[in-house]
Design the sequence.
């Protein structure tokens, strides 16, 4: 059987979106659980609705969630990189400092 070659349109579309669409890094807080959650998205309102409707397994137990901070990035890919860097620190103190200052210091 002959090998089929070519580009994957879905993969190409995701790559294009990650390059041209603005992304956001956000921090939400659950008073119920006294926990923060860091994420990234292209639409903050939709993403918060997903968290508060129970669609996200990891945040379901903390409903309701409220936005404490968000930061607009030049691209979705950049937002995901910043999200990963913040999560890697595993520090509530850093999250609270970001919320207090309303800025992300890039030397996390």
Sequence:
């Amino acid at each position: 059987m002959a090998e089929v070659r070519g580009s994957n349109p879905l993969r190409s579309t995701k790559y294009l979106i990650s390059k041209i669409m603005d992304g956001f890094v956000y921090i939400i807080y659950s008073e119920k659980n006294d926990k923060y959650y860091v994420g990234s998205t292209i639409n903050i309102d939709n993403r918060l609705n997903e968290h508060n409707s129970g669609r996200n397994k990891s945040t379901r137990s903390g409903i309701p969630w409220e936005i404490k901070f968000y930061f607009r990035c030049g691209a979705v890919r950049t937002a995901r990189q910043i999200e990963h860097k913040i999560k890697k620190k595993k520090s509530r103190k850093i999250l609270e400092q970001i919320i207090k200052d309303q800025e992300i210091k890039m030397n996390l």
